[in-house]
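Form 12-C: Joint structure prediction
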Amino acid sequence: MTTTEMPDTLHRILDYSSRSDPYPLYAELRRTPVARQEDGSYVISTYRELADILHNPHLSSDVRNLSHPMPSHEGETTPAFINLDPPEHDRLRRMAMRHFGPPHTPGLVTGMEPALSAAVDGLIDDFAGKERIDIVDDLAYPFPVTVICRLLGVPREDEPRFSLWVNDIINSIDYDARTDPKEKLDKGVQARADLREYLGGLLAERHGRPGADLLSRLANDDGPDGRMTDEEIISTANLLLIAGHETTVNLITNGMLTLLRYPQVLQRLREDPDLAVPLVEELLRYEPPVHIIPWRAAYSEITVGDTVIPQGSQIMLMLASGSRDPDRFHDPDRFDPDRTDNQHLGFGSGIHLCFGGPLARREAQIALTELARRLDHPSLVADPPPYRRSPVLRGPIHLQVEQNGG
Amino acid sequence: MTSADNLRAFKRDGRIVIVGASLAGLRAAEYLRDEGFTGSLTMIGDETGEPYDRPPLSKQVLTGWVPADGTMLPRRREIDAEWLLGVPAAGLDLATDNVRLADGREVPFDRVLIATGVRARPWFVESEAELDGVFVVRTREHAEGLQRALAAGPSRVLVIGAGFTGSEIASICRERDIPVTVAELAPAPLVGALGAMIGEVASDLQRAHGVDLRCGVKVTQLEGDSQGKLRRAHFDDGSTLDVDVAVVALGGIRNTEWLQGSGLAAGVWGIACDTGCRALDLNGLVTDDVFVAGDVARCPNPVYEYRLISLEHWANAVEQAEVAAHNMVNGQADRWPHLSIPTFWSIQFGVNIKSVGVPTFADEVVVTQGSVSEHRFVAAYGYQGRVTAAVSFNNAKWLDHYRRLIETAAHFPPSCPTPDQPVDSKPVPVDFPGPVLLAQGATVVVTGHNPSERRVTAAYQHHR
Amino acid sequence: MRVVVDLSRCEGYAQCAFLAPDAFRMHGEEALMYDPNPDDAQRDRVLRAAAACPVQAILVDRLEGRSEERGVPVEASRS
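Section 2 - Result
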């Protein structure tokens, strides 16, 4: 393994024109597993190297450890745990986990299952008779947003307000000072401030009023680690709201798109709902909702394979490329829900493994099973469909589907 | 079995006998069928019933959550074997290629796999071991009996030996709110396996959970009443303790007695073999048709100066089973070496303790990440300037990194800081009790991920 | 149904304890305790838990419902 300059491939991946099919470019990238870029950053694209570095304690998630801090994170004084390292990361994630999963709240996700099914049923009832539907607008977006709002305690009717902020924040994640207008960055910074202020307002109402939603529980918790500060609660809620918005929508939409491209699998899912379980794992490998972790930092010198990455370097992790690495997965470009050896990187790995993964899995399993069961001979209107801008959180912005009969 | 024709014929209708029908034996049988072996397969086991898993016996079973007969091992596939259960093997005749059973039956083979494992070391006075209330934990019958005794609400339990099993049992007692005393000859729990620094952490953990921990003491006598019921324990400092349950957790004895006279390099240390799991004979020569896997195997590890190492680790049994099975039905040129870095876990007092490498093969230890006082940390072990092992307390997600450090003979102490740098990160002597054999020598590097690609490379210039 | 977890692979991600909380329980933050023989009523949840394991450490019996292929003489088996 050698380190060579390969600026072209990465920029072609980030360019919108490759959004519908970045996979051939990932294959090109994998020829250099750890590739130094012109600007001194590093891109890692092969499975073994990704798995190694995700378990490397010298890899930092705190952008303040970059020698050139990311512009989009300016002004962020209290990062969420996704952007922190141990021990702070561990403490905040543990405190949030107290109200979301095991060991303190083990039955939360399974307890939500009836509500998840009801939400999907309701949405499908609304479009069951229509000849043309948009999987994104009619199900894949409203479903997880409803779920995350209920979980957090954010009023669903405020969605038009915060979805604009979330959109501006996502657009600013991959801001590149050389190619993007400054406005893109400014809008992101402003949206962060607005969303924090909004969540701060919701939090203020909850102090001293214990309730079932996550904001109430965090506001009134006195666990072994004490209580989060208001700033920490807002950062956590902010993270979960954005993640709950922008990832599951892609998983469900990418899933439906893939099923429509593999009609025999769609038919199998119709007949055998149990298939949804391995099928969603294969989706997480084959068409994952998060393609790239764009901003990890070398806290100190890191050796990956034969490459030594200097302290302070920015490191980009191409997770979706790793999950298509032929050195790890047999016939990786084939969508195969019967795959048995499927230790994918769809939710990352190591201490930052997706916080909401179990919920996302159940949402996708339930949504895809019900879509398969209730859509009548669905077909794609356009293939490929139009995509969102982001190369990081990748998925169609609309997925028009026609069905028979009405 | 030299020519390809012979090998094909053997794979088609040869006879393989597996002695030992527990984890290693079962997995080996499954891997043999995976490899395309279609001949006859015979499983010999001294216990009745299907192969079952042992780790839950000192954990889930003793809490009362899982019944002792509920740990039967799931199957990876069908194995189409003949099962000879309930009768132990009593001898191995390599002149006629027969396994002799205790009831006199003879079972012929072309190739044999020995996976007879270990049994619990009993209390050293037989009459005291037989007292009602004295237990060991190795089989499901043992676990069932101890679980019943714990459920009856004993006034106090005495655990003799603070290794992993003894510590786990003490943890369960506290979880069930049963008063427990732990007696250990060494200065601290786990010290024989993990050294003095971790031993001190383990002591804190036990005491913080209300264990009456007594180190540096020896139990000299278990005293019963006229009904044969355990009443009291005597210590070498002259003190006594009233107890109604005593658990003897003094490690295991390798089941090799049946191989006396077989000509194999078998003894209390286990059965010596090469990295391909082929048994050595008394002269140290490799045999062709006798293979060994699991707790009873004593296998060289190139990373540790080719020292012969016996491991009573779950993963080791599974990995050796796979390597042994592969080598039993493949020719010399296609043989795999067993080159895994040992891994181990223990669950006690709400902490997940994991290790990678061989912590006893070390002269220094250093905390590299986290906080010892919060019982969340990783410690790296080093020998002569290279990393040889690591142990984590509730920090398992980092351990794979240390496995890579061991495999690549990385420099010790690890030089670069991490964000979770402990306050005190100076190496200290590892300080094992008793003699620890260490020697200087060559370093090797292990490469490859799948068993088919794992290889050793000599690395004379690897140290920085 | 029979289950075994390779705890030397397990890194304590707790995904199984989310998805099948009656069969997989966290003991503290990171240590997993599980039921090696969960009730058949748990089947769907256990299969979801096994599929979701980030290190693929959960093995569920592949001979489920085909016990005749286990091959162990019935008289020698415990109930």
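Section 3 - Comments
The first strand of chain C starts at residue 3 and ends at 5. The CA atoms of residues 68 and 75 of chain C lie 13 Å apart.
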